[in-house]
Specification:
By secondary structure, the protein is an alpha+beta fold. The chain is built from 5 helices and 5 strands. It comes from Thermanaeromonas toyohensis ToBE.
Length: about 190
């Protein structure tokens, strides 16, 4: 009797394996769909990182141009040479370069080909000549110890549907903040 039960159990197992050949196809289809969904999610997240990196480069270029607006009279003072950034000129150059690098119009609205999906806001811009200088913006704090130009910009970016599936609290648009500080590089003449 025990042998008959064991034999019947083997037959059931064999029958289940024999009938489950189609399940391999179902599992393959399921895992392929999961892999495609994860790939789409990674691409959506990668897009946001690429936009932020591109914006950081554009901000750095604008700040470098602004930091280059050095008062040559203060720098060439024989008694007390100092690096002084011209505030008005630095501001003009900063906004001009930022608009050009991010492809913005005169009101900071995106032109075709811009990475921003809405107006770019300059949240904070400061030419720092008197150091040390400390400031706070939200949870961010910084102390500047050299004459520099610092800025924080923000802009909206549309996010993909896969991120919204993972984070339903996100809307169709997320705001990206980018911060940078740049000091002029002075190379002494020999």
């Amino acid at each position: 009797m025990l042998f008959a039960l064991q034999e019947r159990g083997k037959n059931r197992l064999y029958q289940a394996i024999k009938d489950s050949r189609g399940s391999a196809g179902i599992f393959t289809l399921f895992f392929t769909l999961v892999a495609l969904a994860l790939t789409a999610l990674v691409l959506d997240i990668g897009y946001l990182f690429a936009v932020k990196i591109n914006a950081r480069h554009a901000l750095n270029l604008a700040l470098k141009a602004a930091a280059a607006q050095v008062d040559m009279a203060a720098l060439s003072n024989a008694e007390n040479p100092r690096v002084v950034i011209l505030t008005q000129e630095a501001g003009e150059v900063f906004y001009s370069c930022l608009r050009e690098n991010l492809r913005l119009d005169a009101w900071n609205n995106p032109l075709p080909g811009s990475i921003a999906d809405g107006p770019v806001r300059v949240e904070y811009f400061r030419v720092v000549n008197e150091v040390p200088f400390s400031y706070q913006y939200g949870d961010f704090r910084e102390t500047i110890v050299r004459p520099s130009v610092t800025a924080i910009i923000s802009f909206p970016v549309k996010i993909g549907p896969w991120i919204r599936m993972v984070r339903p609290d996100y809307g169709e648009v997320v705001t990206i903040y980018v911060h940078s500080t740049v000091a002029p590089r002075i190379i002494p003449q020999r």
